[in-house]
């Protein structure tokens, strides 16, 4: 986990907050890129049953906010993170937002390329490949693109990364009383790594979480841990995505948001521990 100056992870363990106390915030923006769902409006139509889900490779937007040199170096996972974050925070001064970046791994394609290079006699590594391969690269590019100096956390919890990011972002909203942007995303690996970590494509979701209700509020979200079993998606066609891509553990939550439906869903988190998520439409 990386922490920007001015924010300490210890604040998330404030003794005034009871253990397993529910964490609540208002969702005021959503960004989504996933196979067959290039953005949140397209995903909403699918999740509402207004359009069929058609399997297709994830479409990644050009990182137009980056300076030309960084734009040329931007990898798939960096384009993904910037795309979902800017969609969720549209209309907001993104330079002021605290951020939480959460992913189950780093950039799969760069990892593959580095392994290929190291398996040859010429083991000189491209500096660009190296700095794009590290887990916090998307957070660094976000700072360059948005000129943000706000607190930033970078997390990894393997298949529980969406849940870990959601808890951390909600903790900042509740305890630090600041709007926080959660970006949860994953990248696919080429073969032969794909056989061991079979993520089918890159995908990600971003949620803009705020302390109070605003005119842009979509719903109030309340989260606490539970040992109840996780629930699948309502749409059977999307269940393989939810199961295969850690960031898409968010799909049951997103279904309720898209449908404007108050409900509680149970999302996979860590072995033997799930997240009970209550959605109340604004």
UniProtKB/TrEMBL annotation:
Pfam families noted in UniProt: Ketoacyl-synt_2
Domain Beta-ketoacyl synthase-like N-terminal: start-end pairs: 54-222
Domain of life of the source: Bacteria
SUPFAM superfamilies cross-referenced by the UniProt entry: Thiolase-like
Name of this chain's protein: Beta-ketoacyl synthase-like N-terminal domain-containing protein
Organism name: Hydrogenophaga laconesensis
